[in-house]
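name: query_chain
kind: protein
chains: 1
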Amino acid sequence: MSLIMAPPLPLVFLLMIHGGFSDDADWGVSYSPSHICALKDSSVIMSCTYTYPTGYQIMKVFWTKGAVIKGEEPPDLSNDPEYSQRLQYLGDKQQNCTIRLSHVTLKDSHVYYFRFITDKCQCIRGYTGDPGVTLTVTDLQVESPERVTEGDSVRLTCKSSCTLTDRATFIWYRNSQPLTERRDRNNELLLQSVRREDAGRYSCAVHGHNHISPAVQLNVTYPPKSVSVSISPSGEIVSGDSVTLICSSDSNPPAKLYWYKGGTFVGSGRIYSISKISSDDSGEYKCRSINEHGEKYSDTLTLNVMYPPKSVSVSISPSGEIVSGDSVTLICSSDSNPPAEIRWVKGRKFVGSGRIYSISKIRSDDSVEYKCRSRNKHGEKYSDAVTLNVMYPPKSVSVSISPSGEIVSGDSVTLNCSSDSNPPAKLYWYKGGIFVGSGRIYNISKISSDDSGEYKCRSINEHGEKYSDPVTLNVMCELMIVQ
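structure:
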């Protein structure tokens, strides 16, 4: 850019003029525009023209910056390491003094002047164009609210420290991705009815320029959504296992989490753990997620705890006294998961299966212990035994004589009545049709011929009565024979 200069003359012959020489009308520098606002890292064109009287020869042209001090030659920016690689002279040695300054930085904000030096009559005259070009270099900053609530409208502004000289078309980015190639003619981005998906780091740029503003975080707050409950471990749950319920919730700010079983509060936090789970822990669980903007419940999750039979018992229907000939139903109750297989035991023998065991026309032979066995794949359990106490009238009534054999007067004889009944029967003795005594045993001491005859026992309870077959006592005078 610099021209070859004539040998330097003493400084006393150098004349610095800020308004021209004696013929001011023929000297001048014109800048258009005189104020430039440029974006950081862009290229700036400083348009410039100059005039000088006819007959002068241009010895040197250059640009300088800062205030011009009378009596001192201003520095040539093309010799400044900070400018030499970025400054390009686009003018000539006649009228055009335009330059391009590339990759401008904030430190390049100065007033710049064009200066030319002429040679006339073996003296050097220099002219510096005043007022120069004021260059302001700006970067971009995004101005945005730090936090907005879902549904609000939010306005983001791409700000610069000065109004850009070139007409600017702004581009907006979210998380480094352009917003659908959006190129607004103004420097504002309006998000109407903001959504949680709009949260992110926003930055802006000017179309055609590389400079992108620092990103600013937009934080969108919203009530809980997508609240769900998962269980670990998955699969079948058996009593004694340890189980963890995990609540997931999408919200901003993070929600507080509460656990409910049915409608009862049971805990708080993201995780609800149950160690050594039991059948009592079976039921419906849900998680409540709440923050300052709202709340939401998860769908219910059912804990289905598998366990072996317990609380196995037998009930009798109808309840109360059981009389032979009645119909009786035994019912087995069992708490288990999955439902158990039920089998019935009479004494030590399996006699049936299913929850109900029915006996129609019950007999005295059925007066034994019954119990049910409840079994599933996790274990088995027997009920306590129940005894069917069947009431029935006397049966099998018989009389025996002791001693057996011939009966002789003077002997002692005992008649013994046997009777099967429930409840136990009362026993009465008859000789012929005449009542002679009661009780299981009828004794005759020193029997005589008068005691000869037919004897029988009558057995009676609340359900009926029965006589034994008669037995004949034949008392011998000398030798009594029982016939």
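note: The chain has a mean pLDDT of 88.
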